[in-house]
Design brief:
Helices cover 50% and strands 22% of the residues. The protein has helices at 2-94, 98-104, 143-163, 170-184, 283-293, 298-313; strands spanning 108-113, 121-128, 131-139, 197-206, 211-217, 221-225, 228-232, 239-240, 252-255, 261-265, 273-274, 279-280, 322-328. The strands form 3 sheets. Strands 2, 3, 4, 5, 8 and 9 form a 6-stranded antiparallel sheet that branches. It has a 5-stranded antiparallel sheet with strand order 1-13-10-6-7, covered by helices on one side. Strands 11-12 form a two-stranded antiparallel sheet. A hairpin with a 4-residue loop joins strand 4 and strand 5 (211-217). Helix 3 (143-163) packs across helix 4.
């Protein structure tokens, strides 16, 4: 009996030890699993930290490089802008000064609004032999390319008018100017070469004789007399290479009367987008505006035209250089 009891006690003790051993093994496995997971998590975390640090360093480096490039671009832009502004001062210096114009054309207005800092439109007004020569020109392009052409045009006009003892006729000046432009730009009419040039209106006023000559290259002349619009049409060819470069320009001879109002202009004003429908101002509206205001003093005409343009444009950007010259005889 005693032996049986001891045997059972031993078996129970062994079973308990086995259970404790199995529990210990289970706990050990769990500990190993937890340790493994923890190690893996730590490794993953460290990898992520390293990646984040690396990404942050790359981002800082990229931001530094970007900031350096932005600084360089800003400096280069400022240098370019400063150069263009200096070019604008040179271009403006080549235009006739106000006090000089006051003596030649006391009743006049000029609206001159470059789209960029410098302009492809230009006006040229001078005097020779008691006659006033007025040119309103629109060169190919705007901004810097147009400004180069405009300065060429002014230089050539100075040369043409000064070299002749007697002032040439309006059509002769245009033909000489065309020759200078073609020669200086090496234009031959071949495909792919420069097609640059200019459209312009040129008129010569002889106040004593009450006569005016007009010749135009794609830019016509408008004159109001007694409320009626008289249009002198330009030849449909530019100052520059053209299919019929030997074709002469037409000269229009006009008798003037006191009070005649003469307008020459580029296409920038009536090509401006704006209004409620975001459309061009259009030449018909430009004509109607002049019909309404041409009898007003020239200062009032300019004010009305500028205000009308500003209201039409609203928040729109200017699309082209704008030039309008009005002269009361």
């Amino acid at each position: 009996m005693q032996v049986k009891y001891e045997t059972e006690a031993t078996e129970k003790e062994n079973a308990l030890l086995l259970a404790e051993s199995e529990l210990a093994d289970t706990r050990l496995r769990q500990t190993r699993i937890i340790l493994t997971i923890t190690i893996i998590a730590i490794v993953v975390f460290l990898i992520m930290v390293v990646q984040l640090i690396r990404a942050n360093n790359l981002k800082k480096k990229a931001n530094t490089e970007l900031a350096q490039k932005n600084t360089l671009i800003t400096e280069q832009k400022k240098e370019i802008t400063d150069s263009i502004q200096y070019a604008s001062r040179i271009q403006n210096a080549m235009l006739p000064p106000g006090d000089y114009l006051d003596n030649l054309l006391p009743e006049r207005f000029i609206i001159f609004e470059p789209r960029d800092i410098v302009s492809g439109d230009f006006y040229y007004i001078t005097e020779k032999d008691g006659k006033v020569i007025c040119v309103v020109a629109d060169c190919t392009g705007h901004g810097v390319p147009g400004a180069f052409m405009s300065m060429l045009g002014i230089s050539f006009l100075n040369e043409i008018i000064s070299k002749h003892r007697d002032l040439p006729h309006s059509n002769e000046i245009l033909e000489e100017l065309r020759g200078h432009v073609i020669k200086s730009l090496h234009q031959t009419g071949k495909m792919g070469e420069s097609q640059d040039g200019m459209d312009l209106a040129l008129y010569i006023i002889d106040m004593k004789a009450r006569k005016m000559e007009f010749s135009g290259a794609n830019n016509s002349l408008w004159m109001f007399r007694n409320g009626q619009l008289i249009e002198k049409k330009a030849d449909k060819m530019p100052i520059g290479i053209y299919g019929h470069i030997d074709k002469p320009f037409t000269r229009h001879d006009i008798d003037l009367r006191i009070g005649d109002m003469v307008y020459a202009f580029s296409d920038g004003y009536y090509d401006q987008f704006g209004g409620p429908m975001q459309k061009k101002f259009m030449i018909k509206n430009f004509r109607e505006m002049l019909i309404q205001i041409h009898n007003k003093p020239v200062k009032d005409q300019k004010r009305i035209m500028v205000e009308t343009l500003e209201q039409w444009m609203a928040d729109n950007s200017q699309v082209d250089d704008i030039l309008v010259v009005g002269v009361r005889v």
